Amino acid sequence: xxxxxxxxxxxxxxxxxxxxxxxxxxxxxxxxxxxxxxxxxxxxxxxxxxxxxxxxxxxxxxxxxxxxxxxxxxxxxxxxxxxxxxxxxxxxxxxxxxxxxxxxxxxxxxxxxxxxxxxxxxxxxxxxxxxxxxxxxxxxxxxxxxxxxxxxxxxxxxxxxxxxxxxxxxxxxxxxxxxxxxxxxxxxxxxxxxxxxxxxxxxxxxxxxxxxxxxxxxxxxxxxxxxxxxxxxxxxxxxxxxxxxxxxxxxxxxxxxxxxxxxxxxxxxxxxxxxxxxxxxxxxxxxxxxxxxxxxxxxxxxxxxxxxxxxxxxxxxxxxxxxxxxxxxxxxxxxxxxxxxxxxxxxxxxxxxxxxxxxxxxxxxxxxxxxxxxxxxxxxxxxxxxxxxxxxxxxxxxxxxxxxxxxxxxxxxxxxxxxxxxxxxxxxxxxxxxxxxxxxxxxxxxxxxxxxxxxxxxxxxxxxxxxxxxxxxxxxx
Length: 477
Known about the structure:
Layout: E1 3-8, H1 12-21, E2 27-33, E3 45-47, E4 53-55, H2 65-77, E5 84-88, H3 92-95, E6 98-101, E7 104-107, H4 111-116, H5 126-133, H6 146-154, H7 156-171, H8 180-183, H9 185-194, H10 197-203, H11 215-222, E8 225-230, H12 236-246, E9 251-254, E10 259-265, E11 268-273, E12 278-281, E13 283-286, H13 290-294, H14 302-309, E14 313-324, E15 334-336, E16 345-349, E17 365-374, H15 377-381, H16 389-404, E18 412-423, H17 429-442, E19 447-449, H18 459-474
Parallel strand pairs: 1-2, 1-13, 2-9, 6-15, 13-19
Antiparallel strand pairs: 3-4, 5-8, 6-7, 10-11, 11-12, 14-17, 14-18, 15-16, 16-17
Helix pairs in contact: 1-12, 1-18, 2-11, 2-18, 6-7, 9-10, 14-17
């Protein structure tokens, strides 16, 4: 039977779900409902007339793993290959990543030398922690915080500095609250399968999803890319998806179509919109944030709504800065800041190093992005509804001055406050997901959960969740 499928949310996850659904003969109509005036969600690029590009969301995508291949396959299908800006493993942005600890920048250990020698800010060679890890017995907990897991297996110093920074960089979150099982499944699975992270990484710890690599994904592997962007910024990807969907029969895309209420009966869903109109669908794929879905579900599904509401998310302030000339004391991808050093500033990305193509034409400049807040937003800046752009800008510029010994002032800046942009997979997240999906199955709800709230927050994870949602409905595409 052919189905009418409504996809809620026009971010990259919703667009991906539509893209995959539109390839199936089992769907008669796809309706994408996006509440704002544009699709693309957090993928948002500023394109200036002088050629400069600044990202107000994710700024580069990793090509690694099945989900990385899946995204490159989509890029290839959309005909965006000529737009790609790859960064290879021998590039300075791949080689050099820094930590700002005790008022100083330290290059992250890399290569064999970095593992065998003592490299500040660490007090002993990393190889010692690695060798000790091999003999530490397997944990007994069903779930554990990332910090507790790494402390137990690799020692508290790596947990306090490196892992604290990593969780701030990826999730804008607190490693002491985040779940290792949900945030870093390969680490959890390595310990489960092999009793050791190191052995799990060396020997493999189970089969992940299978994705057949396109020619482009094979090229990325052969040339050993570590990340990539697009010439006109990451926003190009959702724009290309939207263009491609608009050209297909049986696909409707609606902006300014905010869902007010979902009602369900034996014939399917009735979706009421804010503007008073309503439509019918046989199946709903929701890529809305969990809390947004919770607020539109019917009262009868209160148990599901409560589970959805328990998935927290954080606010991140993102400040793009542009300076005249080349002002960096070091070159690399950027630096992260542990929470003990400065809770409010998560890190600084040296955008001009990996992607000089995004600099303006004519005259050398340095583009930086300062990321602030996250799980520490309220304690640092107070309410996100009351903080001023000037406060955020001042704090960002001050951080660049002190961390990078920059004395000049930026010649251009832009402040974006991304509210509730990164879901936080706190302890027990896997259990909540299990309960929600069990509820949906027990009540025969024609509803699929996809998007960043559930199975991964990266661009790749969200795109893959859209594909998984579509395939769960119409079979492998």
